[in-house]
Design goal:
With 98 residues, the protein is of the alpha+beta class. It contains three helices and four strands; from the N terminus they run αββαββα.
Length: 98
Amino acid sequence: VDYLDISIKWLQTFLETELPQVKLINPQGTYILWLDFTALNMSQDDLDHFCLNEAKMWLNNGTLFGRSGEGFMRINLALPLSELKAVMGQLKKAIINK
């Protein structure tokens, strides 16, 4: 739990400082977190394609949970912090190059 807290805090700080257009939804006791990509103004299909093919990240599509999940993706934090940092670097690079 402590390790997950470290990862969550790191992710929140990273998004706030490096990718303010992607918002972290405050987690409520899980290691799978919601990310709000609505500021990127992409359709859900485009967002899914962008994350997988441009950022090279496999995230869960938010619409698996209904229409209100449009513009959202879910990320699993059950991974080493070094990998999370690498993946977020990939996302940052993809958004910059968008």
